[in-house]
Structures are given as C-alpha cells and as structure tokens.
Amino acid sequence: MHRSIYIETYGCQMNFADTEIVNGILREQGYELSDDLDTADAIFMNTCAIRDNAEQRIYGRLSNFEHLKKSNPHLVIGILGCMAERLRTDLLEKNASVDIVCGPDEYRKLPALIDAAFEGEKGIRTQLSRVETYDDIVPLRTEGISAWVAVMRGCDKFCTFCVVPFTRGRERSRSLDGVVGEVRDLVARGFREVTLLGQNVNSYLDEGRDFADLLVAVAAIDPALRVRFTTSHPQDMSDRLIAAIAQHENICNYIHLPFQSGSDPVLEAMNRTYTREHYLSLVRKIRASIPHIALSTDIIAGFPGETEEDHQLTLSLLEEVRFDGAYMFKYSPREKTRAWKMGDTVPDDVKGRRLEEIIDLQRRISYDINREQVGRVETILLEGPSKRSDQEWMGRTGTNKTVIVPRSDYQAGDTVQVRITSATSATLFATPVETAQVEAA
Ligand code: 5AD
Ligand code: SF4
User: Fold this and answer.
1) CB burial readout 323-349, b (16+ within 10 A) else e
2) How far does the centroid of ligand 2 lie from the alpha carbon of residue 199, in Å?
3) Euclidean distance between CA atoms 50 and 56, whole angstroms
4) Count of CB atoms within 10 A of residue 54's CB?
5) What pTM was computed for the model?
6) Which of 50, 152, 155, 202 to mutate to test ligand 2, by most ligand atoms within 8 A of the CB atom?
7) For site-directed labelling of 152, which of 32, 204, 236, 347 has its Cα 20 to 30 A away?
8) Which ligand is closest to the CA of 160, given by its number?
C-alpha cells in the first residue's frame, strides 16, 4: 500500500526549495504525495524560525492537526525545517501529537523516519552537516514558468540577530556543474525563468569558481532564459558580479540587498561588517554600472539599543537610496544569537511606531518610483491569469515589478511588450504594444 504524504511550507524561498527536495526524496522511495489534508496518512510542516510570530503561526496550525489526529490516531505528524532544528527534542516532549522532527540537513533520513513512525515509533534527526547540498537529488517541481534553484546552503555571517546560522548551519555550495545541469533540464521542460537561491547567494564558491562565474554559466545556457538570484550580502557584492549583471541581457536588473539599519553603531552591533557609507557607495557603484537596476532591501526596526537618532538614519537612508521595495520587520529576539544577550530594550509600542514610519515612507517611495514608469515600454514575462480577476493577466518586468494587462490570447510563459499606463505602490498596469509602435517610440 502506498502511504500518502501531505506537506505545508512556511517561511522563505529556501524552505519552498527544500520541500521540492523532500518531495523528490519521498517520490523516489515510492510515497504518494498528496494535496488533500483530510485523507493523507502523514502531515508535515516545513517550518520557519526567523521571528517569533512565524513560530506562533505554526503552533496555531499544529493545533488544527492535533484535532485531525483525534479522529484518526494513526495519522503521523512531522515537523521539518528551521523550527525542527531550533527546538529539537523540545518539540517532541512538549507536543504529544508530533511523531517526527527532522532538520534541514537530514532529509535523506525521512523515509526511514516515516516508516518507523507508521510502526508507532517517534523519531528525531537534527544533525547539521558541513557538506550536505542535496546536489544529486532531483527536486520534484510542478510544471511552471519560474523555478527556484538552491545553489548554496547555510550562512557563516553570524549577524547577531539571526538564528539562521544555528538552524541551517555552515555555508556550503553545490557544484557548478550540478547547478548548470539542473537548469538545462528546467529549460528543456519549458521553464522560462530561474532564481538562484542561497541565504548568502553571492558567497557561492565551487573549486575557485565564484558566484559571478556561476551566474554567467547559467545565463549562457539559453539567452531566452531569465536569470535571477537572491539574497545578496553587501560584503560579497563583488565588481565581477556587478559586471556580470551589467553585461548579460538575460540576467535580470534586480538586486535584493538587505541593509538592516542606516546607523553605524547599530550595524556594528548587528555584525553586518559594513558602514552606512560603504553601503551607499556600493549602491552608487551598482547604479553607475547598471543604470536601470531595481533594488530591494530588508530592514529591522527596534534592534537592541536602537535610539530615535538611529531610527532617523534608517529613514534617511531609505530616502537617499530610494529602493523599489523593502521587507520590513520588528526585531524579534532569538535564543542562542548574540543579540539575545543584549536584551529586548526597545519597547514594543516604540518598535511598532518606528516600523510604521518605515513602511509609510517606503510605500510613498515605491509609489513615486512606480509612477515614474508610466509611459515606459517594458518586456514582461507572463506568469498566468491575475489572482484578482480572470479578465486580466499577470506578468513581471526584469526589474521584478508586477504588471497587470488585460486578458488576451496569451499563454503562461509568453513574453509581451507593454506600455505602462498607471501604477500603485505595489503594481503596474499596462497595455500590450505592437512591435511597430515600439520601434517608433
Ligand atoms: N528579528 C527581526 N527580523 C529578522 N530578520 C532576521 N532575523 C530577524 C530577527 N531576529 C530579518 C532580516 C533578514 C530577513 C530575512 O529577516 O532583515 O534579512
Ligand atoms: Fe542571517 Fe545575516 Fe546570514 Fe542573512 S547574512 S542569513 S541575516 S546571519
């Protein structure tokens, strides 16, 4: 009898890529993968531990699964990913319904853990590895337009707020040939876009070949393939990498470059290894080499010791750079990190107010930038009908902006030239243009 497995994924793109690896491993072993929660023999959650609210959401969901288990006592429940790694035996001891706990470097052990769980035996595997990259595992992906390809795992930067080095372990890279082979297969299957993925993607290294080499090798596979990457650390944003983006038409003009705080004392306490001025000069260099580059960033409000003056410096950095978009968070203390010992000194209402100010300012800047796009002609890659209306299609520019166009005789994966007609802070609206019109424009 084939046992059926249902997996829910939370958190970052790395977790979604990991779920595809887990699915690849399970399918290989003959398990059936199910998207029906109510009939599955085993339920897994691939979890996130980056902030406390991510964990609370998962506990809430776990209590739903506990109810299912009451009516079906044979149901197996498993926790994968960063919470599994962070909490380990605690998860088993404090949550009677949980049968399996398996961390990000132990997914090859899942079939054995699942078999034992069906025999009534609980199991835990949370060893971190210095070498595991799942380079030989073929991730199981549904057909589509855009694929995420993990090229490195882990992080060695040890930013003082971040739990990732503890939940995902040391940095290690896949082989360049392995990545290129996987992307070739994706192109042959009809994928039109890949995003190379890593916690710190630009510190990729395989036998002397760095991330610029990898990016160029992937871009050379097919000039019609769009190539993206995330997340970059300012420290590893090399001149060669900037040149690679500038020189290759199909490497998208979009960089996600977290700055976290605009104030030097805070950056120092965060162990970010750069100053405000370093960051700003890096942005100037990028813009000088790649004129139409879009930039996005991550920001933390209310890091321990952050003063009102520090916060104002974060706002002024936002004004100075004018990011196209940002992911903005309230600081959340994580056990084991160095910042944990600094206490959580900024009161929650102050954190909340600072975060609001950051969000409001960024929304205004995104809106201004998007409004400046009106009238421009862009090439968009269509992903499918828009979520809001079946009378519209949704696509993306190379600069990663969402564009809505009126419905027409399109197929997902088409590239279409459009003229931007209006904008909000999050979305552009456009109409298709004839090639002749573009040439005249
Ligand atoms: N609290 C708040 N935000 C955090 N991030 C990482 N750790 C924390 C934390 N403890 C944010 C950072 C990082 C993004 C992925 O999550 O901005 O870039
Ligand atoms: Fe966390 Fe810093 Fe590594 Fe990013 S670079 S994963 S924020 S430790």
Assistant:
1) bbbbebbbbbbbeebebeeeeeebeee
2) 7
3) 11
4) 17
5) 0.95
6) 155
7) 32
8) 2
